[in-house]
Amino acid sequence: MEDIPVTKKETQLSHEPHGATAHRYQVYRQSKNGCHYNYGDRVALPDEAVGFFLSASPVFEGGGLHLWDHHEQRAVASAEWNVEVTRMGFAVRTRANVFHDEALAVIARGMAEREALEEKINSQLRMTV
After folding, report:
1. Which of 10, 48, 59, 95 could form a disulfide with 43 if both were Cys (CB 3.0 to 4.6 A apart)?
2. How far apart are CA 34 and CA 88, in angstroms?
3. Mind listing the pLDDT tens digit for each residue in 77-88?
4. In what order do the strands lie in the sheet with 65-69?
């Protein structure tokens, strides 16, 4: 029996869909009973999927939020909730987006950089008016 080498599997975002549907990604939100339900429509493009995931909000504070890849049959992104205590002693949940697919993480970083640049330009325009 031959040993088959195990390699790290990476998603190819540019290949044609191989399933019955062309819409690859879906955001799922956790309800209070623990079940996950689809949120919004399925999308085909990775850029749209990442943008939709980043703008999605949980059903309840600290609830689960996942971006599912129907072709790979796995979660490619999820939101984790960390509890931080403010200086006044209040516990506040903060969202940390975790991307399990490096290609989608690159897209998310690009979106965050673009958003920061837009905010900087807008604040400079407000100062000049």
Report:
1. 48
2. 32
3. 999 999 999 999
4. 36-43, 25-30, 65-69, 74-85, 91-99
